[in-house]
Amino acid sequence: MAELAPALPSLTDKAAFWLKRDIVRGVFLPNERIKVDPLSKFYGVGRSPIQAGIMQLEPTGLLSHEHQKGHRVAPVSLADYDDVRQLYRDLYRIALRRAVKNGDMAWEERVVLTLHRTSKVPKVIDVRGEGREMWQMAYKRLHAEILSGCGSPLLTALIADLGNRVERYVNLFADLQSDLERDHHKEHRELVDIVLERDAQKVIEAFDAFFQRAQPMRDTVVEKLRSMEETKPARRPRGAARPPPEPAKPAAAKTAAKGRRKVS
């Protein structure tokens, strides 16, 4: 899948890119320990690019750091999902308004060109194959190009990080059947036509309607998270005796992608 990655200047950037994508895709699961040596073998690069790539991802919210213990994949919760999703939508609206106001002709041309390229990428639901990754990258590239007209790299970076966190919840927990029934190519063409009209309120309403169509899919994420949290064992009260240890069980086989992904 290396050909899917954007042109990146260094092994560190490539390692950070693929570690980020694999966390978002669910190859590495919530709370999973992130260890340098296994990642170095998995991606086929040295320890230094992996270590630097991990540091690049610290501010994104996809990793959590434990003092003197290293990094884990960020945990998941219903509260976090609701918080991240709402902030993503709020910042998205701000960027849209700015883009409609500030975007120049060169921005319009880039949006139209990216729409054309996106329309050539088949929409794929199967999360196991490269086709799904190609579709998700094309989808994100179009939305990023639309928002780039806002003229704020900081704002677009924040939205991209939040978008990755929302996407991780979808990849981990969503039932994608309702998404399969949507014609995203048609919806994107309609959105771009409205964006080019430069009516900010109409643009906001159109994108609100676009995101609202994903509500059935979001409902399945909420249902899964709520079910997980309801079945969590109760915490042992402070000072209570520990229960006797259970017999050792064989470790479960890792379900993440097997083999070595070279990023060089």
From TrEMBL:
The question of whether Thylakoid is a record keyword is answered with no
* SMART domains linked to this entry: HTH_GNTR
Annotated region (Disordered), positions in chain: 224-264
Q: Which Pfam families match?
A: FCD (PF07729), GntR (PF00392)
**Cited InterPro entries:** GntR_C (IPR011711), TF_FadR/GntR_C (IPR008920), Tscrpt_reg_HTH_GntR (IPR000524), WH-like_DNA-bd_sf (IPR036388), WH_DNA-bd_sf (IPR036390)
Keyword vocabulary terms for this entry: DNA-binding, Transcription, Transcription regulation
Domain spans labelled HTH gntR-type = 9-76
Q: Which SUPFAM superfamilies match?
A: GntR ligand-binding domain-like (SSF48008), Winged helix' DNA-binding domain (SSF46785)
Comp. bias intervals (Basic and acidic residues): 224-233
Q: What is this protein called?
A: GntR family transcriptional regulator
Q: Which organism is it from?
A: Phenylobacterium terrae
